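pipeline/complex-builder :: batch 7 item 3
reading input block
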Amino acid sequence: MAHEDSFSGQRSIRSSPFTRSAALAGTGAVVGLNYLKYYGRRAIGGTSDTTKLHEENAKAVYRTFSELKGGPLKLAQMLSIDKNLLPDAYAREFAQAQYSAPPLSYPLVVRTFQREFGKQPREIFDTFSQEARHGASIGQVHKASRGTQEYAVKVQYPGVADSLQNDLRLIKPLALQILGLKERDVAAYFTEVEERLLEETDYARELGSSIRLSKASAHLQNVRFPGYHADLSSAKILTMDWIEGVPLDRFADGGADQRVKDQIGQALWDFYHHQIHVLRVFHADPHPGNFLVADDALWVLDFGCTKTLEPEFYDLQFQFLDPALIEDRVRLREALESLNVLKPDDDETFRNEIIAMCQGSLELVARPFRSADFDFGDPDFMKAIYDLGLESQKNEIIRNPRGVRGSPHTIYVNRTYFGLYSLLARLRAKVKTHLIP
Amino acid sequence: MDNRSAADRRGVTTTAMDSKEQILDRYAEHLRENGTRPKSVFTFCKDLQISEEDFFRCYGSFDAVEEEFWRRMIQNVIASVTAGPEWAGFGARQRTLAFLFGFLEASLRVRSILLIRKESFRPLCRSTWLRGFGDAHKEFMRGVLAHGHDTNEIAERGALASVYPDLFFTHLLAVIDFHLADTSVGFERTDAFVEKTVNLVFDLIRTQAIDSAFDLVRFLIPRR
């Protein structure tokens, strides 16, 4: 029995790139079908839905990843499914990845300063906390001050950039095994993830993105950014203003007025909308830890992971937002072909089934865009998206996708929309959703 | 180093102190340039334009020169890390780390010599001239460990604790070995190695892990 379970699990998992791209290609809201997240949940959920099993599996998977810090820890975070789409136990375990790396000792922080600036922290700042105020997956944040100015100083773990590729090489067979994926099906996806992760280890690049993107989004209502300090930053150290605020997840779960929560949700929506559809470069890590709420405004903290949308890909990906397209089978079919979700050698029956399936999932993920206002607090909506993921696991076509389908670029688009939807759901926010200009 | 002025000083106001410095500097320079120590005290003195008598007044042999070289190196590191304003607030773990990072920083200045002497720094392969270096380190670590007892970072366990300084010295040699083989940018991997191994060692000596291992070995030995 156990043998059979794992066998069928593997088959259905292999289908995932297809699943993901079919559903997500539409709005880019991959939601429940997100390939990595979906698979993560599949692997953890197995064929049983019992909470206990989820919990034990989640712990086992989490432990495997967390024992390998750095790259694998980031990978675990990527896999981590936001609250609503993952069994609770799973999400909880993965959420810890954000906080569980052992802190850098203060002498090592001093050593890093010495190497980067030729000076010790106390020679640069008036005060500098010896203990990290909070952790990040590849570094930690210290609080410092000079005069009346307070700073958040992010210090990277030594050798992270160096060992990341090694770590990924190490984790890859493990991840494939845990998640039941086949290497040839996911090679392109791993490359995409590896590129983004390597970018995250370059704080000089992050500084550039942060300054550029925060300037280009500065006009948005209720969206704020800390000031960045290039003179106090390097490839391994990033210094910005210290912001005193409440992390977004705590704010969402807290007792703030729903009017304020709506306002924060709107700010979040506007921020992503502006980036994806206007700037076409976006903050691809909508983790609640990357946002603070202070003075009824949303503060955006971490631009380590950004994704640029090339015009060709943008056009292909977001053509699915057109409601008319989803109704029109001929156009939908062309659109799916253009994204490589449908392949030239697929037979007619297969095509029809895929198209029918995509119509359902696309309608769902594009729904927020269909009306002027959308209530993410509607539990039916998030549940429908979650069920979509469950349903797709049972679907024979999705289980046997016949090769790799879709584009690896969708990973971060999907992850971002998925994260955005689940943050908005957590805020129970009513949002004015704009149509694409 | 200007040989002529050194020789002049020798003629006029040479103190033993000056000669010691000169000999050390020139000896290190010779090692760096040639990869070996000078052929004989005679050629070395001729080159430095001092008498052999001067040399032997300061050092009994090249081994003694080399011992002094490494002893000073580690003592300078100890002096500089313990002088930092944060030192007093550090626990034993942080003191150990601060020392090792200070050592790594200082070792960049003598890295070429360390590479020449690589074999001698391997654990279990200790040259006689490394004794001063080892003694200075062990004495320093005894102080750090005593501080660790005060801060309850290290469990008191009598006779076994006496091997700790040796344990830490072996660890230092392992760090040096790792450092010399490290090709990462800025030797970041060595930093990570130091951080992780020191954490491990302190986790071991804080808990009963070593006692338990010791107890197990004691249990097994008579039965074999």
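note: Residues 62-82 of chain B form the longest helix (21 residues).
queue -> next item
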